[in-house]
Amino acid sequence: MPLVYGALLADHAEGRVTHVVLHDLDPARLSAVTRVLAEQAADVPDAPEVTATTDLDEALRGADFVFSAIRVGGLEGRANDERVALAEGVLGQETVGAGGIAYGLRTVPVAVDIARRVARLAPDAWVINFTNPAGLVTEAMSRHLGDRVIGICDSPVGLGRRIARVLGANPKEAWIDYVGLNHLGWVRGLRVAGRDELPRLLADPDLLGSFEEGKLFGVDWLRSLGAIPNEYLHYYYFNREAVRAYQQAEKTRGAFLHEQQARFYAEMRNPDAPAWKVWDDTRAEREATYMAENRETAGAGERDEDDLSGGYEKVALALMRAIARDERTTLILNVRNQRTLSVLDTDAVIEVPCLVDANGAHPVTVDPLPDHATGLVCAVKAVEREVLAAADSGSRTTAVKAFALHPLVDSVNVARRLVDGYTAVHPGLGYLK
């Protein structure tokens, strides 16, 4: 939230956001983040007003934009997602594989409740979904909000920015040919002034190996693909190595973040603590350690300084400006497919470049994916649909099917044990019968 608020503070144009309502179930968290925002706004005379409430309905009434960023079960839940999966020898990452399915199963019912409330209390609002798994949750909410819910992610933006940077191009002037699902997409081209510059990158091993994805996936593999995959595809292409690295890590990502967040809120109990500095130091540590195990496995080294500055807030502000002011722009977003990818139905949420205006986000027609990518996209979308079906019906059998069909879960028996393990540690999965 402080990153988003920081973007709003820098916006002084007509039609800007003037009032922000924070909502959380925990009054202590609300108080802490409100203090952070107050310190951010200290030197900005026209800063948007900030109020806070633990009443969701009160927060929603009259809203123009709703940011949905929730974590059902908290970071302890994320740590449990990882632990249960790794005990079975499969990936527990929060959006990919078994961990993503577990997170989705307990998040979808809550996200659907929020969508229904928005439809009732703020029917003209646009919902910007930050909640992971972003594509799955956006699709669940779209069944109640239609195209008025849009999912955002900074991964494609960061990837496009890095490719443009190494090619010496201005990212704002480049057209990024990106397509897939959230955390499962590929850059197939980067056009500047009508010319595709990606072949030049793929032909130069030194250039190709100079940025994060080149270091993470390796030059040879990227040249074999003829595309640059989203960093999360490392979990698919190098799954065995990733699982081993996470099993051998001193603590999982979720456990690390759980401890880190607890330290932040403990510090914030001190009324004299410098709220903004404490928050920003915590954010910087979080960014620097992002996907550390994957980078270590690949020998990719530390993250570049340019990749530590966030990105969600820039996408969110550009999206709001385009809709509120009809400032037309192009953004990579999670939206309903319409007729963009012929292998998926019209309601399937995909991640593609969209033209955004006052009427919302409109997916741009893209070329078909190659067979290997189509197979992954279709398989993972089928899993997402089973998660939605399980969340809707409460069927344990359907939940097992969702796990068993995922490309990174290698046995139906493992899927059954995963459901047993997750229902044992997550009260939020008690609805599965």
Structural write-up:
This protein has 433 residues and is an alpha/beta fold. Among the domains are: 2-151, 3-Layer(aba) Sandwich (Rossmann fold), CATH 3.40.50; 156-237, no CATH class; 241-297. Helix content is 52%, strand content 15%. It has helices at residues 2-9, 27-40, 56-60, 74-87, 97-121, 134-145, 155-166, 198-203, 205-208, 212-217, 219-225, 234-237, 239-248, 253-267, 275-288, 292-298, 312-325, 371-393, 396-405, 412-425, and strands at residues 19-23, 49-53, 65-68, 126-129, 149-151, 174-181, 184-192, 195-196, 228-229, 329-336, 349-357, 360-363. The strands form four sheets. Strands 6, 7, 8 and 9 form a four-stranded antiparallel beta sheet that branches. It has a three-stranded parallel beta sheet with strand order 3-4-5, with helices on one face. Strand 11 and strand 12 (360-363) form a beta hairpin.
Largest sheet: 4 strands, antiparallel
Q: Helix fraction? A: 40-55%
Tally the beta strands. 12
By CATH, the superfamily of the domain at 2-151 comes out as NAD(P)-binding Rossmann-like Domain
- In CATH, the architecture of the domain at 2-151 is 3-Layer(aba) Sandwich
**DSSP helical segment count:** 20
Kindly name the structural category: alpha/beta
- Backbone CA Rg: 21 Å
Strand residues, percent:
5-15%
State the distance separating the first and last CA atoms: 36 Å
Mean pLDDT: 94
CATH fold node name of the domain at 2-151: Rossmann fold
Spans of at least 5 consecutive residues whose pLDDT stays below 50 are: none
CATH top level assignment of the domain at 2-151: Alpha Beta
What overall geometry do the principal axes of the alpha carbons give?
A: globular
